[in-house]
Amino acid sequence: YEMTYDTCGCFWPIIHHYIFVSIILMQGTMVGLFGLKSKPSTAIVTIPLILITIAYNEYCKIRFLPSFKHFPIQVFK
């Protein structure tokens, strides 16, 4: 059985981007929600999480994105 829909991981950087955008959006929404609920300390504590998430995204781009620019070590027919 030979799979004809194998993309060699070309879609993973796109999926990775959408996952991180949704995480940042969710965390921003939580900051706004905590601000509206009159919980300023919780909203302030949530802001570093956004910065840590962005830093982790940049680390993943540096570490893993070059791997997806080249085809894997695999023999294609």
Describe the structure.
It contains 2 helices and no strands. The chain is an all-alpha fold and 77 residues long. The longest helix has 30 residues, at 40-69. The chain is elongated. 0% of the residues are buried. The model has no long low-confidence stretch (mean pLDDT 84).
Number of helices: 2
The value of Rg in angstroms is 18 Å
Mean pLDDT: 84
Low-confidence stretches at least 5 residues in length (pLDDT < 50)? none
Order of helices and strands: HH
Shape: elongated
Major β-sheet annotation = none
- What's the count of strands? 0
Sheet/helix structural class? mainly alpha
The span between the termini is 13 Å
Task: Assess the beta-strand content as a share of residues.
Answer: under 5%
Portion in helices: over 70%
Task: Please outline what is shown here.
The protein is mainly alpha-helical and 77 residues long.
